[in-house]
Amino acid sequence: MGIVSQEAILELQALMDSVEEPLNITFQNVHQGFRAETLVRFLKAREWNVAKAHKMLVDCLHWRVQNTIDDMLAKPIVPSELYGAVRDSQLIGMSGYSREGLPVFAIGVGLSTFDKASVHYYVQSHIQINEYRDRVILPSASKKHGRPITTCIKVLDMTGLKLSALSKIKLLTIISTIDDLNYPEKTNTYYIVNAPYIFSACWKVVKPLLQERTRKKIQVLPGCGRDELLKIMDIASLPHFCRKDGSGSSRNSENENCFSLDHPFHQQLYNYIKQQSLITEPAQPIKQGSFHVDLPEPAAEETEIAKSLESELQKFEKGNMLSKSTDGIKTDDD
């Protein structure tokens, strides 16, 4: 870390020392004792501009207070059938750890349908996984390895990616914006696997729009990515859809399916949230209904990416329709 970087950290630290309650309390939930590493994340997200990083961090803390994010891990999605439906349509899980101790999160981008619940339930579920990662999993990993572990690895499975992805863009943009503004620089590397042709076409359009910092984190692997991923993690931590070529994100895989509600990660997460809810309000019945969070306005970059994706997918749709119509035209020879 260079001298300028160190100076920026100290400058931002001095600014954060003057933060008053309740912002200071929620800041402790954000940094979990790794204050310097947290300041670095926000500085990186604002290209080491101290004033912009300070505003971003303070805005994040206000968002947390206004939306009671500190209580998010005490707000289970009930009944359990609804939570199961969310899990079945928002495919995400944790498959294990890299050899460096970073949690490995698996995301079924192509087969997630987001059609079993309202937007607010999916946002609630996403934030809960973020908070559980940051307040339970990462501190535990740091303690185990005796050093700060404050980021994770994400493996994105594109199996099943279709033109219907057009309907998911708005929700995915909301989730992405929440992460960019309030959980910056939490992902060390994004590995993209099982990418169909439609992804390749969309990637060509989106890649130039991404910040260089983000582009450098994304690696598109051949096939299911098994061989490349085994260089950084053991096979036990490999997501189920990376086990062999063409395995895909089957919802009916063996117990190793890390998207399944029966997977140890989801069992531990759900039980943790239920226990926290009983500690917070032991005499109160668990309320049904989603935990509403203010949905942010996407940044200009996010909006441009979403529009470009929509345009590219619509081109595909028109191309497919044209292809089908020409296939159905009989020639004079028929």
Blueprint of the fold:
Layout: H1 3-17, H2 23-31, H3 35-45, H4 50-66, H5 80-89, E1 92-97, E2 103-108, H6 119-145, E3 152-157, H7 169-182, E4 187-193, H8 197-206, H9 212-215, E5 218-220, H10 226-229, H11 264-280, H12 300-327
Parallel strand pairs: 2-3, 3-4, 4-5
Antiparallel strand pairs: 1-2
Helix pairs in contact: 1-3, 1-4, 2-4, 3-4, 7-12, 8-12
Structure described in brief:
By secondary structure, this protein is an alpha/beta fold.
Fold and architecture overview:
With 334 residues, the chain is α/β, with parallel strands linked by helices. It has 2 domains: 6-67, Helicase, Ruva Protein, domain 3, CATH 1.10.8; 81-244 and 257-277, 3-Layer(aba) Sandwich (Phosphatidylinositol Transfer Protein Sec14p). The protein is 50% helix and 8% strand. It has 12 helices and 5 strands. A 5-stranded mixed sheet has the order 1-2-3-4-5, with helices on one face. Strand 3, helix 7 and strand 4 (187-193) form a beta-alpha-beta unit. It is globular. The N and C termini lie far apart (72 Å). The model is unreliable at 245-254 and 329-334 (pLDDT under 50).
